[in-house]
Every structure is written in C-alpha cells, then in structure tokens.
Amino acid sequence: MLTKKDLQQIGGVVDERFDKKLDEKLEPIKKTLKKINKKLDTAIKVFDRDFNYHHRRLNQLEEKAGVEPPAFLVKAN
C-alpha cells in the first residue's frame, strides 16, 4: 500500500513533468509576445515623434498666420 510520502513523491514527479511540458509549450508564445511588444514600442515611438513634429509645425504655421490656437490646445501653466 502506498503511504502519504510515496504519493507526495509521485505527485512531485508528475508536477515536474507537467511544468516542463507547459514551459515548452509556452516558450514560443513568450517569444512571439516579446516580438510584438518590441514592434508596438517602435510604433509608439514613431507615432510620438510624428505627432510632436506635426504639433511644432502647426504652432509655426499659427504664429506665421497670426492665429491664436484653440483654447483646448493651449497648455495651462
């Protein structure tokens, strides 16, 4: 008859095998998510850079035309 200690050892072996198989299955998903995260970071940086450029350009055009920017675009001090 199996004792409690024997059952715990068997359970430990089963858990280790399950964890190993799970890690093997999750590894490609983790790699894909890391790639997606890097691409998203790059896209956000490009968007921020372009947005800042367009905002500066808009300010220059407003100054040149002598137009006041809309109140919601003016930063509160």
Task: Give an overview of the whole structure.
This protein has one helix at residues 4-65. The protein is an all-alpha fold and 77 residues long. It is rod-shaped, with a radius of gyration of 29 Å.
The total domain count is 1
In the predicted model, the low-confidence regions spanning at least 5 consecutive residues are none
Radius of gyration equals: 29 Å
Helix content: over 70%
- Count every beta strand, where a strand is a DSSP E run of 2 or more residues: 0
Summing up helix and strand content along with how strands pair, one would put the structural category as mainly alpha
Query: What series of H and E elements makes up the topology?
Result: H
Largest sheet: none
Q: What is the average of the pLDDT values?
A: 87
Distance between the termini: 79 Å
Q: What would you call the shape? A: rod-shaped
By DSSP (H or I, 4+ residues per run), the number of helices equals 1
Strand content: under 5%
Quick structural overview:
With about 80 residues, the chain is an all-alpha fold. The chain has 1 helix and no strands.
Topology of this structure?
Elements (H helix, E strand, L loop, with lengths): L3 H62 L12
